């Protein structure tokens, strides 16, 4: 199916999110929509999917103008969308999720057998290996994304929108998705691939359209260099490598010894994890998602009870303290899921910037919030961290993912830091914001603070790390220098000890 957008404009009050956008996607084409966070990519796709009504412009399918009053109309016309944040019900099975919204019936009763058969047919076609009766909440993130794709294809989608599809995937899951995308395109499905990851665009896209500040600023060939694409996205030269001097590491600042974490059923989630981070050093934890990295960060910050071992920060034991107690010891913590653990979407930017700090000064005076100080602090943070927002009073849930991440990082870096922990610090963040966040992390390191980074992005690990600890099945399988080749890291991540 050929898709064409002509002059699409979408406004939200005084903000023009899409400004006269033209886009053509040919049948069987993977068309990448590239741009910074907040450039208007997702808004444009929400218009296409019927979630928003355009203020100007029109949508054509096979040269015929169409008008969608809602997602149901878009799906009926053959358009499917896999959202960045999955639209699945965790307690339902795969088949139950796939049938939602167009439930087949037989004799007035839900026909779950037909849904199961459809899941098996599509899974077999693309090699997904999905159990129709599996509970979605028990599935890995990469498999959940496949469920979303199956759900779209079960409704005969001929145009598939993938909105930041790799934001929560491991490198291995990303590679598998690229294979699936190519299979879909070869089968005739048109794909709109929304992303900001240059490596992925160059690997899979047939054509690239770049959007900046709500406007199309150009088309590019996948053969273009990463530097050219980044400059087109951001409107300036972007440094794709982290500029940093060798670490001037001091004494051991964070000492983790024999850290063991037990699940409720007694299983070991962390198994005698030990490492040190010196003052002014970045230690990156690498590994395939699900090997204990998340639990490690949460155990250090005080989110788990069934923990043994020791975590000492400049001689002070952190284990046994509340999360608030750990934070007030000078620990900045950026969680891996900003929406669930880092922010309150309904709260304003200013309110989110003072989360965890409303117990005492300077945000509180004589038992009451000092709104003047709070708002001044927020305006300064917005300027310093280049948070794209209409103002401190804007609900943080209305910001793009990258700007939400900047709010979290601004808040945590504003502490009187003795330790900085960031889990997936640039997940879902565009190339310009990645450059900025990496610079700030190195600045924290250079101020003499120990830094613990947990990332599944090997490029990020290589860019930031002074040393790398690789986790496998809840243990650290090896600690290597920051300049260790990717191939060696890959072997460690697969469980092959050095």
From TrEMBL:
Pfam families cross-referenced by the UniProt entry: ABC_tran (PF00005)
Subcellular location: Cell membrane
InterPro entries on file: AAA+_ATPase (IPR003593), ABC_carbohydrate_import_ATPase (IPR050107), ABC_transporter-like_ATP-bd (IPR003439), ABC_transporter-like_CS (IPR017871), P-loop_NTPase (IPR027417)
Occurrences of domain ABC transporter (ranges): 3-238, 254-498
Keyword Cell membrane: yes
Chief subcellular location: membrane
Membrane topology: Peripheral membrane protein
GO MF: ATP binding; ATP hydrolysis activity
Keywords (A to Z) from UniProt: ATP-binding, Cell membrane, Membrane, Nucleotide-binding, Repeat, Translocase, Transport
Annotated protein name in UniProt: ABC transporter ATP-binding protein
Lineage: Bacteria, Bacillati, Actinomycetota, Actinomycetes, Micrococcales
